[in-house]
């Protein structure tokens, strides 16, 4: 299986033996790792007791026009050569998927991308797949295809010799239904005070909105962001498999193939490159942090410290829910529908809030620092909240609501959104197009949107910001149990977007 993003294509491995000078050639656009397969295959076959004949061996990976990347073709190449030499029956292995890297001792080693490869193989109609033992549990998640995990090339040769086609092989005991888990995350009860920020977090989780938390160091911005996944709805099995497929491409999966129903939380370092954020690499294109956060949260701590091109690269996936990486020979699309949470200090030194008595930054330096999050990127962030430093009165002897209590309200608000938008194909308020909220049956009366209309007229909001504030108002109304937003809901939404408390009046 040759993978392009999460999409696959079956590759037929052809082998021919001829009585010329001994050699082993692999053709069909292999990359550097795949071109090195001959030496691994030769040593592995010798270790398995079936040394390759002293002949010229030509292996073709068809279709030859599709690039082949990685070491996962080793096992297929070895079986094709052994079939050409009549060591195993050609008719037994012709329609079987073989995936795995070969060690010099004949061991079959795990490779990344097993889950998306097996998903495609099942959809293409293949009934059997031979995979490394370490990838067996992950591959076993896919229904409709029988998985045969193996430890050594000798296991494959022996099974073909003793039993014939894989449908006659004994059922492997190691392939069981994947365990379903929910990982442990922090609790919102750990947050002292910060009532406005907690409301913003709850709104973000309820409607799928993006969030900016700004404030001095130690105010709790990172703690708040880390607890968002604890109040988000659990992933559906299909979504969990899609998330696990992305992790598989990144080589970041568990040996037990467990399905984690907790939404992912990805927090890349502020020194991350453009390829690390959106995906890329050469020659193999791998998903980046935005795809790893699919169906979950992408958290950028110290957001102004990220490179400008890295921050601006988020604009396209925020709008479309996917990231497209174009190369001369291929175009790869990865899913990237995530919630963005940004955290920022008020200035480079971090002490520029309040009276700023400890701040050592010049006005110009503060302006340049703040400008890194201005413009089109910040216009796509629905909630922009200042997180004040916690005072002693708020920190001692006070506890906020637990995550399970907030999660129940989030689930109810999301249920209301699904009941309203489900028939139109949307599940969250953040997914609803702006014209739907401004025109037609869901348009709000002028008396309700008066503050919002004034902000648009005076240039405090763009039309994109207007639409995003409307979506936030619907989410605030859902949390309050109201069928339609009121002027208060619109005012709160506008305040939480612009930090303008007069909007509520």
Short description:
With 505 residues, the protein is an alpha/beta fold.
Helix content: 25-40%
* CATH fold assignment of the largest domain: Rossmann fold
In DSSP terms, counting alpha (H) and pi (I) runs of 4 or more, how many helices?
Answer: 22
Per the principal axes of the C-alpha atoms, what is the gross shape? elongated
Largest sheet: 5 strands, parallel
In whole angstroms, the N-to-C terminal distance is 61 Å
Pairing-aware structural class of the strands and helices? alpha/beta
Ranges where pLDDT stays below 50 over 5 or more residues in a row are 501-505
β-strand amount:
15-25%
What value does the Rg take, in angstroms?
28 Å
* Count of the domains: 3
Family: Belongs to the Mg-chelatase subunits D/I family. ComM subfamily.
Pfam families: ChlI, Mg_chelatase, Mg_chelatase_C
GO molecular function, one term: ATP binding
Protein name: AAA+ ATPase domain-containing protein
Protein model, in words:
By secondary structure, this protein is α/β, with parallel strands linked by helices. It folds into 3 domains: 2-168, Ribosomal Protein S5, domain 2; 188-404, P-loop containing nucleotide triphosphate hydrolases (Rossmann fold, 3-Layer(aba) Sandwich), CATH 3.40.50; 432-504. Strands 14-17-20-12-21 form a 5-stranded parallel sheet. It has a 3-stranded mixed sheet with strand order 3-5-4. The chain has a 3-stranded parallel sheet with strand order 6-9-10, sandwiched between helices. Strand 18 (322-326) and strand 19 form a beta hairpin. Helix 18 crosses helix 21. The protein is elongated. Residues 501-505 have low confidence and may be disordered. This is AAA+ ATPase domain-containing protein.
């Amino acid at each position: 299986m040759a993978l392009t993003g999460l999409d696959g294509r079956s590759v037929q491995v052809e082998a021919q033996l001829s009585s010329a000078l001994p050699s082993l050639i692999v053709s069909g656009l292999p990359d550097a790792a795949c071109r090195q397969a001959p030496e691994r295959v030769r040593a592995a076959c010798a270790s398995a007791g079936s040394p390759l004949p002293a002949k010229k061996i030509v292996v073709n990976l068809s279709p030859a026009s599709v690039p082949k990347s990685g070491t996962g073709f080793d096992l297929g190449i070895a079986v094709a050569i052994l079939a050409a030499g009549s060591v195993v029956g050609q008719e037994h292995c012709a329609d079987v998927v073989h995936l795995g890297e070969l060690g010099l001792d004949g061991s079959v080693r795990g490779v990344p991308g097993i889950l998306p490869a097996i998903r495609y193989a099942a959809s293409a109609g293949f009934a059997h797949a031979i995979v490394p033992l370490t990838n067996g549990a992950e591959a076993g998640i896919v229904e409709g295809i029988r998985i045969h995990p193996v430890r050594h090339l000798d296991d494959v040769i022996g099974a073909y010799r003793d039993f014939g086609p894989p449908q006659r092989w004994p059922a492997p005991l190691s392939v069981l239904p994947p365990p379903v888990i929910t990982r442990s995350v922090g609790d919102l009860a750990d947050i002292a005070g910060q009532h406005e920020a907690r409301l913003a977090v709850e709104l973000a989780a309820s409607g799928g909105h993006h969030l900016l938390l700004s404030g001095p160091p130690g105010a709790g911005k990172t703690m708040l962001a880390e607890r968002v996944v604890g109040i988000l709805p659990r992933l559906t099995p299909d979504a969990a498999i899609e998330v696990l497929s992305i992790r598989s491409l990144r080589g970041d999966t568990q040996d037990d193939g467990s399905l984690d129903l907790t939404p992912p939380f990805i927090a890349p370092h502020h020194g991350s490159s453009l390829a690390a954020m959106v995906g890329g690499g050469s020659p193999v294109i791998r998903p980046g942090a935005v795809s790893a956060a699919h169906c979950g949260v992408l958290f950028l701590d110290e957001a102004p410290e990220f490179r400008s091109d890295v921050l601006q690269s988020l604009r396209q996936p925020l709008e479309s829910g996917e990231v497209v990486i174009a190369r001369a020979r291929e175009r790869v699309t990865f899913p990237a529908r995530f919630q963005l949470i940004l955290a920022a200090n008020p200035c480079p030194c971090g002490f520029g809030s309040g009276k700023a008595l400890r701040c050592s930054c010049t006005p110009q330096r503060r302006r340049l620092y703040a400008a890194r999050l201005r413009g089109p990127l910040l216009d796509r962030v629905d909630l922009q909240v200042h997180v004040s430093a916690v005072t002693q009165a708020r920190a001692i002897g006070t506890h906020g609501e637990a995550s399970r209590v907030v999660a129940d309200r989030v689930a109810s608000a999301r249920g209301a959104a699904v009941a309203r938008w489900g028939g139109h194909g949307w599940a969250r308020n953040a997914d609803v197009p702006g014209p739907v909220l401004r025109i037609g049956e869901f348009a709000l009366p002028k008396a309700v949107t008066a503050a919002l209309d004034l902000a648009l007229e005076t240039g405090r909001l763009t039309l994109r910001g207007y639409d995003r504030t409307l979506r936030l108002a619907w989410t605030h109304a859902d949390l309050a149990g109201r069928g339609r937003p009121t002027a208060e809901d619109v005012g709160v939404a506008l305040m939480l977007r612009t930090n303008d408390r007069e909007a509520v009046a």
